[in-house]
């Protein structure tokens, strides 16, 4: 594969992932400012809760699981395209995706949407940089591009 194309693929994939996060931010931005989404266990006689019930009802576990699934797919594709290994990319992508899911569901970050988009772009770029390149140069550059894409997305979606 051409070295220029190999260096450009993680940057292009990180931009596409940040655009998809911007689309999800637009879809979730119809809230009325009520950020008090707390988990309330049932007040009646306590029943056994299965692992599936816990993940599907707990907001942080649910967002981390969904983020890990999306990150696994993105990391596996990045590892395949760059030739660094599909399994390696999937594992790194799962970690970065879970972190991104937790960032997106944080109550503090929901009050600061532009910073939330910057942090999301940085996490996506960091995960793709780790999955697709070596640990020193590519990771920092891809995380920087992700942060810049997150800033641009935040300013376009939420205004100056």
Structural features, described:
The chain is mostly helical and 160 residues long. The protein has one domain (12-27, 55-158). It has 7 helices and no strands. Helix 1 packs antiparallel against helix 6 (113-132) and helix 6 (113-132) packs antiparallel against helix 7 (137-158). The longest helix is centred in the first third of the chain and has 26 residues, at 3-28. The radius of gyration is 17 Å and the shape is flat. It starts with a helix and ends with a helix.
Helices and strands in order, then pairings?
Blueprint: H1 3-28, H2 51-57, H3 59-82, H4 86-105, H5 107-110, H6 113-132, H7 137-158
Helix pairs in contact: 1-3, 1-6, 1-7, 2-3, 3-4, 3-6, 4-6, 6-7
Brief descriptors of the model:
single chain, 160 residues, mainly alpha, 7 helices, 0% strand
**Total DSSP helices:** 7
Structural class by sheet pairing and helices: mainly alpha
**Helicity level:** over 70%
Low-pLDDT residue intervals, each spanning 5 or more residues: 25-30
Number of beta strands: 0
Distance between the termini: 41 Å
**SSE order, as H and E?**
HHHHHHH
- The rounded Rg comes to 17 Å
Strand content: under 5%
Mean pLDDT: 80
Structural domains: how many: 1
Reported for the largest beta sheet, the result is: none
Based on CA inertia axes, which overall geometry fits? flat
How is this structure best summarized?
The chain is mainly alpha-helical and 160 residues long.
């Amino acid at each position: 594969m051409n070295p220029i194309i190999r260096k450009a693929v993680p940057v292009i994939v990180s931009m596409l992932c940040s655009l998809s996060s911007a689309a999800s931010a637009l879809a979730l931005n119809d809230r009325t400012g009520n950020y008090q989404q707390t988990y309330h266990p049932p007040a009646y006689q306590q029943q056994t809760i299965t692992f599936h019930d816990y993940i599907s009802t707990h907001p942080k576990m649910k967002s981390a699981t969904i983020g890990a699934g999306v990150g696994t797919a993105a990391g596996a594709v990045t590892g395949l395209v760059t030739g660094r290994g599909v399994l390696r990319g999937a594992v790194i992508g799962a970690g970065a995706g879970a972190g991104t899911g937790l960032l997106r569901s944080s109550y503090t970050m929901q009050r600061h949407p532009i910073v939330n988009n910057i942090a999301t772009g940085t996490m996506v770029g960091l995960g793709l940089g780790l999955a697709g390149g070596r640990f020193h140069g590519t990771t920092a550059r891809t995380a920087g591009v992700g942060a810049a894409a997150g800033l641009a997305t935040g300013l376009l979606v939420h205004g100056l």
